[in-house]
């Protein structure tokens, strides 16, 4: 995946941008977590100690020069020693993210490492996960313990009774690894709440990675009339909103909207979702793609959905925290919880992993006006609809329903709306 282009961004600006994302995503606290970048001179730019992560400015970032000189208005993070130790152990690592995200802290206090085979993209993004035994925070010994794990080749490490630390080739790479690993942790925990998580085999993950999009021929000429440009803006806003709402992460998610007849616009396969811009979105017209762009690897599926379902004008394929609990546990999502859920969704079947690959018919045979969404095991949820905002609303309703069911699992047995009540809803709202 093409990472955020930070070549012309100062390290201070990169750090403040990413720490803001980490904080607003609920992955660290006001005082917790720290981020650093080592530049081409060997100087380390790092978040300050004891400064509010929710309002950090570029001017707050501290620079520790290669000779040890400290420049800035504040002290460097108390965890600076292990940042420095990681850079010394691994010259290929140029950025480090450390925080205390809830799911990974849960793993750290039960002394476990999350299995990234829970979702398809995580194994390649996160790699194998290291484990650092507990040492006093901010100590040189902790730095040594963590550096030894990175020396083994790990790019992500669970810190015993503490949190996690990840490294990357740049800050965009490190953040994506951090976010994806935490999502894995949450998916395993929520899946364990309602059932028993099932994991993908290495062969299944390899099969997913080999699903390189069938490269559509390129158009010779591209037109961008006003209605097409309006769709680009709409897609961008919904993707950004999904990321802000925790309904999509950097490494996975596709949105498409029908344009004219069976032509449509779709998100690309090579851009971090939260950074998608109008010019990144790919036009698909007469079975051809916009020149110089690679659309989502699920383009074939979207194309077939539009061909076979005239009532569908938008599709969202994504990973959300609580719906993924049903995806990885193969438990049935019973949306007969509250009237709105059933009216919006009716039935949400589970389909096997791989049902979304090019040439597969399972999903295409299931989708209809009465079945607007499916859960793909160990992969994602696919939601269809008329207007894109309505499709997004349907996704939100599905995720809220899954959250209520997951939370309710600790309280007692689910008591759904009974068949007579369902029939009343059908007559009033769907007839």
Structure description:
This protein has 2 domains: 11-194, L-fuculose-1-phosphate Aldolase; 219-430, Class II aldolase/adducin N-terminal domain (L-fuculose-1-phosphate Aldolase). It contains 14 helices and 16 strands. A hairpin with a 5-residue loop joins strand 1 (34-38) and strand 2 (44-46). 48% of the residues are buried. The protein is an alpha+beta fold and 431 residues long. The model has no long low-confidence stretch (mean pLDDT 93). The protein is globular, with a radius of gyration of 23 Å. An 8-stranded mixed beta sheet has the order 4-3-2-1-5-8-7-6, with helices on both faces. One of its GO terms (biological process) is pentose catabolic process. One of its GO terms (cellular component) is cytosol. Residues 13-189, 233-406 form the Class II aldolase/adducin N-terminal domain.
Question: Could you provide a short overview of the structure?
Answer:
The protein has 431 residues and is of the alpha+beta class. The protein has helices at 11-24, 80-89, 102-109, 122-126, 140-151, 171-194, 202-209, 226-244, 299-308, 323-329, 339-345, 362-366, 388-408, 419-430; strands at 34-38, 44-46, 62-64, 70-71, 95-99, 129-132, 156-159, 163-168, 254-258, 264-266, 282-285, 288-289, 314-318, 350-351, 373-376, 380-385.
């Amino acid at each position: 995946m093409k990472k955020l282009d930070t070549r012309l961004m100062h390290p201070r600006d990169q750090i403040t941008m990413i720490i803001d994302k980490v904080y607003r995503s609920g992955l660290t606290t006001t005082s917790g977590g720290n981020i650093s970048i080592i530049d081409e001179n060997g100087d380390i730019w790092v978040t300050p100690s004891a400064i509010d992560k929710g309002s950090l400015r570029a001017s707050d970032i501290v620079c520790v020069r290669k000779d040890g000189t400290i420049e800035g208005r504040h002290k460097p993070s108390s965890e600076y020693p292990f940042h420095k130790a990681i850079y010394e152990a691994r010259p290929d690592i140029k950025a480090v993210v450390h925080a205390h995200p809830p799911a990974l802290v849960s793993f750290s206090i039960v002394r476990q490492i999350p299995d990234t085979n829970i979702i398809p993209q995580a194994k390649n993004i996160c790699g194998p996960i290291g484990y650092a035994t507990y040492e006093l925070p901010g100590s040189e010994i902790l730095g040594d313990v963590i550096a030894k794990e990175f020396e083994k080749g790990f790019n992500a490490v669970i810190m015993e009774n503490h949190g996690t630390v990840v490294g990357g080739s740049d800050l965009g790479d490190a953040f994506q690894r951090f976010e994806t690993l935490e999502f894995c942790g949450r998916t395993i925990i929520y899946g364990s709440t309602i059932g028993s998580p099932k994991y993908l085999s290495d062969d299944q993950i390899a099969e997913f990675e080999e699903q390189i999009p069938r490269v559509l021929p390129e158009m010779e000429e591209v037109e961008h009339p006003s209605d097409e440009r309006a769709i680009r803006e709409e897609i961008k806003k919904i993707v950004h909103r999904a990321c802000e709402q925790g309904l999509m992460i950097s490494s996975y998610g596709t949105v498409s909207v029908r344009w004219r007849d069976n032509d449509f616009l779709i998100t690309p396969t090579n851009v971090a979702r939260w950074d998608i811009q109008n010019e990144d979105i790919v036009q698909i017209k007469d079975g051809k793609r916009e020149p110089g762009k690679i659309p989502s690897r699920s383009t074939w599926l979207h194309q077939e959905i539009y061909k076979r379902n005239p009532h569908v004008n938008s599709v969202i394929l994504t990973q959300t925290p609580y719906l993924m609990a049903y995806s990885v546990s193969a438990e049935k999502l019973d949306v007969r919880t509250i009237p709105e859920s059933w009216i919006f969704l009716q039935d949400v079947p589970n389909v096997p992993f791989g049902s979304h690959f090019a040439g597969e018919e399972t999903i295409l045979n299931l989708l209809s006006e009465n079945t607007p969404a499916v859960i793909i095991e160990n992969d994602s949820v696919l939601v269809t609809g008329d207007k894109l905002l309505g499709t997004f609303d349907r996704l939100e309703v599905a995720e809220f329903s899954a959250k209520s069911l997951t939370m309710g699992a600790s309280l007692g047995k689910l008591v759904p709306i009974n068949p007579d009540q369902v029939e009343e809803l059908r007559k009033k709202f769907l007839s």
